[in-house]
Amino acid sequence: NHLKPIVHIDDSVFNGLYAPWQDALVVKLLGKNIGFQAIKDCLTRIWKLVAGFDILDIGNHFYMVKFDTTEDRQKVIDGGPWMIFYHYLTVQTWTPDFISPTTKIDKTMVWVCFPGLNLIYYDESILLALARAIGTLIKVDSNTLDVRRERFARIYVQIDLNKPVVGKVGLKGYWYKVEYEGLHRICSSCGCYGHLARECPTLAKTPMMVPN
């Protein structure tokens, strides 16, 4: 098709183009769009890196970040969760097949709270079981493990954004509410993240009344 030509690049050329970016990270603010300078200033403030970094706008509100030192890069990978304006910053390693217009954030790590959880359940094995009902446990808040915060238990989990988020978990005959910090657009109809009930695509349209 002469209107849609395909360009072929030799692998040796491609490998040379890939090399300067192989240690870059790709970041995106989940659920909120802000300008280039604003996100650069925010990253500088929250990361507090020893050396510098370069940031590039690669479209669709994704940004590629290159670090001056491997230590700073590792700090960003390991040091989360990072939040800007109470929204999570997603961080992923860059790969050569990354295409910003078609890339969708499928998973994110999020702090989850269980208000009113019985204090006897502030145990790592119980919290692990609760986490498995929601996603994958990353870590438990130190205040929860040390029982220094009694009003709620708090864990850090990875969740699948393609699935409805869990609203309640049952334990010993009681249903505990699950609260997600920093996730602002959870549909009360289908339970999925990314839209509100009035925008839910699963809601059946109300049939129009045809007058006699």
From TrEMBL:
A molecular function (GO) term: zinc ion binding
Name of the protein in its database record: CCHC-type domain-containing protein
Keywords for the protein's UniProt record, in alphabetical order: Metal-binding, Zinc, Zinc-finger
Keyword 4Fe-4S on entry: no
Keyword Ion transport recorded: no
Classification via SUPFAM superfamilies: Retrovirus zinc finger-like domains
InterPro entries with a match to the protein in the record: At4g02000-like, DUF4283, Znf_CCHC, Znf_CCHC_sf
Domain (CCHC-type): residue spans on this chain: 187-201
